[in-house]
Design goal:
The complex is a heterotrimer. Chain A is an alpha+beta fold. Chain A has helices spanning 32-42, 102-110, 130-134, 153-157, 164-175, 183-190, 204-208, 215-230; strands at residues 2-7, 17-22, 61-64, 67-70, 83-86, 93-95, 98-99. In chain A, the strands form two sheets. Chain A has a five-stranded mixed sheet with strand order 2-1-5-3-4, with no helix packed on it. Chain B is mostly helical. Chain B has one domain (2-113): Fumarate reductase/succinate dehydrogenase, transmembrane subunit (3 helical TM bundles of succinate and fumarate reductases). Chain B contains four helices and no strands. Chain B has helices spanning 6-32, 39-46, 49-77, 81-113. The termini of chain B are far apart. Chain C is an all-alpha fold. Chain C has one domain (21-127): Fumarate reductase/succinate dehydrogenase, transmembrane subunit (3 helical TM bundles of succinate and fumarate reductases, Up-down Bundle), CATH 1.20.1300. Chain C is elongated. Classes of the chains: A alpha+beta, B mainly alpha, C mainly alpha. Bound molecules: iron/sulfur cluster (2 copies) and FE2/S2 (inorganic) cluster. One iron/sulfur cluster (SF4) binds at residues 142-148, 165-166, 169, 209, 211, 213, 215 of chain A.
């Protein structure tokens, strides 16, 4: 198979370049990540992140043939050749396919991604009814891979101010949690031209989420909650 | 300072959109039914009290809706604060002038028609 | 370290990114919106002229006799139709109607195709 990969070494390169590779995949190579691992045995200067190799850790997000995805969840079968691999769009490139996620995680932390509850804790745990627990489905599964935020045009234009789909999905995860008591504060924080309202419902985020989640739907629900709050 | 920040502009964009949608539907229903539209009928419709008021409301909603849209575009692509402010001010003044112009137009023709 | 991060390149070549259909509908919404704002002064003038006299009213109808003006008007017809339909789509999605991915894709296609067809019909009528 043929691949064309974005290369940039900050120590030697002034500008990024594309490098072509020829690779003969072996029988067990099913996913794009397998091919990349094999490629690394040929050219060990090629850099990319990976860990779990099964869509759990969120570290091998990249732009694959123009769309964001996880290499470990992308089957080799059906990939158009040459397979063009680039780092996540709009993120500063550290080296090759590795991007700087500092800002992405800063947005994540800004929405206070933990339960806030000042009431006296019960003797055992805070219980949820099955219906309350059900509300977290489609939200808690996010692995913070950044496929969505890095595919969102609104995030490209204002990466420092717009929280982005990943952070907003997480924000809604805590807004929906029956055990969290800070909903009003969370909503007040999000009611901002930049933080929430840069989203134009383009839905690029939902298009590329490798976990099949829908940040655009979470954003829609946050907006509705804001309208209800203020009316 | 919360005015036009965050949710308000978003809600206003939708409210003006709904107003425009309603007026367009009303206008289309009026113009496309009944006798073919010639000068006589158009003039009578537009310079009736209802017609004149609705036309002014339509342009006011258009101006507001347009300004919010331009503001969203400026927030996305223009990051120099002064440049952005200048653009939004200029567009705002022009759109406002257009609405005033429509008010004058309707006032003149309304007075002449009456 | 700082200097390096500041010099870090970014990949953001829009021509090398494959945009989903929703993004195409969205950029169309934006472009058509700008066109409509730009045409607003003309619309206000047209309103005035249409009410002045029988002759001015007829002159407005004759505008499309020049091909370049007919083309321009067809472009504005596209802008108005696309913006209107895409706007209705967004209003519905805001209240949760058709905001799932597959229906949003279908409606994005529908908006793009319908607006193009309406504009083509207008152009065909005026140019023939
Ligand atoms: S929402 Fe999906 S695409 Fe976005 S960070 Fe979470 S898992 Fe990744
Ligand atoms: S729906 Fe909103 S958050 Fe998702 S890609 Fe579009 S603009 Fe970004
Ligand atoms: S390697 Fe962990 S998500 Fe792909």
């Amino acid at each position: 198979m043929r691949l064309s990969i974005y290369r940039f070494n900050p120590e030697t390169d002034l500008k990024p370049r594309m490098q072509d590779y020829e690779l003969a995949p072996e029988a067990g190579d099913k996913k794009l990540l397998d091919a990349l691992m094999r490629l690394k045995t040929i050219d060990d200067s090629l850099s990319f992140r990976r860990s779990c190799r099964e869509g759990v850790c969120g570290s091998d997000a990249m732009n694959i043939n123009g769309r964001n995805g996880l290499a470990c969840l992308t089957p080799l079968i059906g990939l158009k050749e040459p397979v063009v691999l680039r780092p996540l769009p709009g993120f500063p490139v550290i080296r090759d396919l590795i991007v700087d996620m500092t800002q992405f995680f800063a947005h994540y932390h800004s929405i206070k991604p933990y339960l806030i509850n000042d009431t006296v804790p019960p003797e055992r745990e805070r219980l949820q009814s099955p219906a309350e627990r059900e509300k977290l489905n489609g939200l808690y599964e996010c692995i913070l891979c950044a496929c969505c935020s890095s595919f969102c045009p609104s995030f490209w234009w204002n990466p420092d101010k717009f929280i982005g789909p990943a952070g907003l999905l997480q924000a809604y995860r805590f807004i929906s949690d029956s055990r969290d008591t800070a909903t009003a504060e969370r909503l007040a924080y999000l009611d901002d031209v930049y933080r929430l309202f840069r989203c134009r419902t383009i839905m690029n985020c939902t298009e590329v989420c490798p976990k099949g989640l829908s940040p655009s739907h979470a954003i829609e629900r946050i907006r509705q909650a804001l309208v209800r709050e203020s009316s | 300072m919360r005015l036009f920040l965050g949710q308000r502009a978003w809600v206003l964009q939708r409210v003006t959109a709904l107003v425009l949608l309603f007026l367009l539907a009303l206008g289309a229903a009026t113009l496309l039914t009944g006798p073919p539209l010639g000068y006589e009928r158009w003039h009578a419709l537009a310079t009736s009290t209802h017609g004149a008021v609705l036309i002014v409301v339509f342009f006011a909603a258009l101006g507001l809706h347009g300004w919010i849209g331009i503001r969203d575009i400026a927030l996305d692509y223009i990051h120099a604060p002064m440049l952005r402010l200048a653009l939004l001010a200029v567009v705002g003044v022009i759109l406002f002038a257009i609405v005033i112009r429509v008010v004058l137009t309707m006032a003149v023709h309304f007075a002449r028609g009456a | 370290m700082r200097a390096r991060v500041e010099a870090a390149p970014k990949f953001l070549n829009l021509l090398q990114i494959r945009f989903p259909i929703g993004a195409i509908a969205s950029i169309g919404h934006r472009i058509s919106g700008v066109l409509l704002v730009l045409s607003l002064p003309l619309l206000a003038l047209a309103l005035d002229r249409s009410l002045r006299s029988e002759a001015e009213f007829a002159a407005l109808r004759d505008l499309v006799s020049a091909p370049w003006r007919a083309m321009l008007l067809a472009l504005l017809v596209w802008a108005a139709t696309h913006h209107l339909l895409a706007g209705i789509r967004h209003l519905l999605m805001d209240v949760g109607l058709g905001s799932g991915l597959s229906r949003a894709r279908t409606s994005a296609w529908a908006v793009i195709v319908a607006a193009a067809i309406v504009a083509l019909i207008a152009a065909a009528r005026w140019l023939s």
